Amino acid sequence: MRLVSPLLKRAIYPALHHSGWLARVPPPGGYAVVNYHGVVPDDYSADDTFLDGNLVQPEAFRQQLQFLKAHYHVIHPEDFRAWIEQGKRLPARAILLTCDDGLVNNLTDMLPVLRSESVACLFFVTAASCGDDPGMLWYEELYHLMRIKPLSGSDLHLLTEAGADSALAESLQAQWWRTLRSASQLDAGTRADWMRRVRNHCGLPQGFRYESRSARRWRLLNIAELKRLAEAGMSVGAHTLTHPVLSLCSDEEARWEIQGSKTELERVLGKPVWAFAYPFGNPATMGEREFRLARAAGFSCAFLNVEHWRGEQSNPFALLRTHVTLDMTLPEFTAHLSGVHNRLQRAVAG
Fold this sequence. Notes:
By secondary structure, this protein is of the alpha/beta class.
């Protein structure tokens, strides 16, 4: 698929899109869920696109919303909830908008576009947004800290001995992902203590210092901002307490991460939190155990961050989503929504 993708992206998808054919193909199952992670603030200049690739430009976001409104039915999250909980019918070609992580640009940069286009979104946030000073996602902070000073050779390295030997030949991104996975095996308190030691190691005892102009890119929503988002007519779902790789957590820790996020958000919002999104949300980071824990926690449904999952496709705790990225063109976006991209990918892989 790697060899086919450039041809699809630059020639085949644009041709199919401009012919109007892709927009006429109904989503698999009659509906689709589109997932974002925020937008690039207008005052932010990326110096490393590795993490920024999960965001979208504001104008691309607006263009995608306008396309969806013209060719699909963008539903309110509460309509999706009524379908899940009560069996109420969805309109044909229904689209649900979601957004993960709870970055402050969800309020400052995404919400104005959503309101101007008169559509609603289901925002999945961590329990960090239930406080006054949420900081940033720990694994994004870890990436910045590892850029400042490598952890290899220090007592902070969490890799196994074999992993540490091979890490010397790895890219920064590979070392970061390996370290992130190792840190996810720690309980939340131990991980927080380890992160404080990493900050000290890098000469930043009080945490990563994002510049004020980039705060909208990195900072999470605080409790007041989260309430403003909900008061604006947006829905809020849970995204764990601390955003670890759930599959690497112990049974007790994974249960605490999932159940605790629901409890905390319901406490601060004063209303039921019915939807959950798995952190990272791909087969390498969660599985059947997490499905069972989300159901046991009392959620009505839970979302992945992939377009295909092995096994039963009607599981309400394994709902598929199209993940929109910075480099995704509108024709590519259309190919994903129609299911054409996924069918081609599976055909090549098979």
